[in-house]
Amino acid sequence: MPGFDLARSRNASGVEPRSAPARVVWTTCLTALCVGAGLLVGCPNAGTQAETPVVLGLIAYQPEPVGADFGVQMVQADRISVANNSGMPKVCIIDSGYSAQHEDLRDQNTAPAISFSNNSGSGTWNQDSCGHGSHVAGTIQAIAGNNKGVVGVVQNVPLHIVKVFGNDALVDGGSCTWTYSSTLVDALNKCQAAGAKVTSMSLGGGAKSRTEENAFNNTYNQGMLHVAAAGNDGNRLTSYPAGYAGVISVAAVDANETVADFSQQNKDVELAAPGVGVLSTVPWLDYDALTFADKSSVIGGHVEFSGRTSGITAPLANGGLCDSVGSWSGKVVICQRGTISFFDKVTNAASGGAVAVVIYNNATSDATCGDFSGTLGDGNSSSVPAITVSCQEGTTALARVGQSGTVVSTFTAPSSDYEAWNGTSMATPHVSGVAALVWGCFPTATNVQIRNALDSSARDKGAPGRDPAYGYGIVQAVDALQALGGTTLCSVTTSSIYP
User: Fold this and answer.
1) What SS3 string covers the chain?
2) Distance CA 329, CA 76 (A)
């Protein structure tokens, strides 16, 4: 019986970020995380194991924003006002749960109501042990107008949550375990029983199941619209359920509308959406910083599987690439990203006596030179705290070598924060959200009509027409409305409706 994993790619290698495709696992979660200087490495896409704590996408730390993320703007969702939400279809999120306590997500007591289903073995629907489901939910419907965080693709959409991954243990490095194909079919049945018209599945596996295929195709023929991640293995293989005829397969693009390295390319890819650096909601606060003697500081990300500290102060030392052991006893060592893995850098620093490690980005490994997150890799660990910072922040730290610095790396849960992740997992809720938004403007339309409108109006990218990388192109909410004709339920603006 095939299984599924979440889709997220991770980078632990320390080499060029685009020198190899990001591997992602899904039917648990489809996301991507950095494990090194740039080589994107993900969970094994065996179809039987979910991504680990990082199973949610590339987590590049960013300060708390307020307003619509680039993804909402790219898919034109910020230009549609819904006059009457009564026709909004229910979206069923099959994932790792939902953080009802998050400041930017609706709780179960706020209309429209959130319904839910639990599966034995995966814990409670509103306890998201790895944050993946909460990140997906934020992309779909993070609250607008509350002067907090981000804005979702569609507002006031009814949700049904089916938790199939993880448990109730929201801890640092909390995991989302794999699930079975039969569990996914059961989840689909629960979505239908709850009255959902759209399913959002940021998950997948490599094995095709006849039972599963029949379930998705039958419910599609009965009027549901299914959306799933194409996968993050960076190859040309098809993943499931995205590969079934009754499911829209979603590829990931970056802020420049270029298909992501990790996004799987095949004949089943139907639409593309933002899936790189997507900022959304997470049920914890991961605070990582380096503070200098003058009280100024730089903020970064935690290197997964490294140590934590509430504050350790020591002289700053320049370790270069940290590709060999140096004389760093009692120092906070500043390492440049590149050449070797993060694990090797931290190990070399620790062997040289370092009490903490700060790894800064470089243009060779990442052209953006911005914030990023890393991991020591599954099976590796270090008691030495390690954080990551941008190129600019690395330059700031190097200018203070010889002075004292304090490294803080703390994890608080449950809490409310925002992280930018990569993965077809992140692209999928953009499409399911747009589908719900457009359907809410045309509540009498059929699922086939909504699907055809999304396909025919997509912004064509890559080779003309449908292609294996982008499908029909990047989903466009406004253009899909126009493809369906006029409606009095929604209005379109030429600029964003959000501040």
Assistant:
1) CCEEEEEEEEECCCCCCCCCCCCECCCCEEEECCCCCCCEEECCCCCCCCCCCCCCCCCEECCCCCEECHHHHHCCHHHEEECCHHHCCCEEEEECCCCCCCCCCCCCCCCCCEEEEECCCCCCCCCCCCCHHHHHHHHHHCCCCCCCCEECCCCCCCEEEEECCCCCCCCCCCCCCCEEHHHHHHHHHHHHHCCCCEEEECEEECCCCHHHHHHHHHHHHCCCEEEEECCCCCCCCCCECCCCCCEEEEEEECCCCCECCCCCCCCCEEEEEECCCEEEEECCEEEEEEEECCCCEEECEEEECCECEEEEEEEEEECCCCCCCCCCCCCEEEEECCCCCHHHHHHHHHHCCCCEEEEECCCCCCCCCCCCCEECCCCCCCCCEEEEECHHHHHHHHCCECEEEEEEEEEECCCCEEEEEECHHHHHHHHHHHHHHHHHHCCCCCHHHHHHHHHHHCECCCCCCCECCCECCECCHHHHHHHHCCCCCEEECCCCCCC
2) 53
**Domains by residue range for the chain, with CATH:** 3-60+85-281+418-492 (3.40.50.200), 285-412 (3.50.30.30)
Kindly report whether the peptide bond that precedes residue 499 is cis, defined as omega within 30 degrees of 0: no
Using a pLDDT cut of 70, give the percent of the chain over it.
86
Higher pLDDT, 72 or 170: 72
**What is the mean pLDDT of the segment spanning 286-304?**
94
Residue 60 pLDDT > 70: no
- Looking at residue 49, its pLDDT comes to 27
Average pLDDT, the chain: 86
Question: Residue 225 has which token pair?
Answer: 């619209």
Which tens digit of pLDDT belongs to each residue from 373-406? 788 988 899 999 999 999 999 999 999 999 999 9
Q: What Å distances lie between residue 123 and 48, 95, 127, 164, 176, CA to CA?
A: 19, 12, 7, 8, 11
416-471 pLDDT tens trace: 999 888 899 999 999 999 999 999 999 999 999 999 999 999 999 999 999 999 99
CA-CA distances (angstroms) from residue 435 to 88, 413, 430, 446, 488? 10, 32, 9, 11, 18
What span, in angstroms and rounded, lies between the C-alpha atoms of 55 and 67? 26
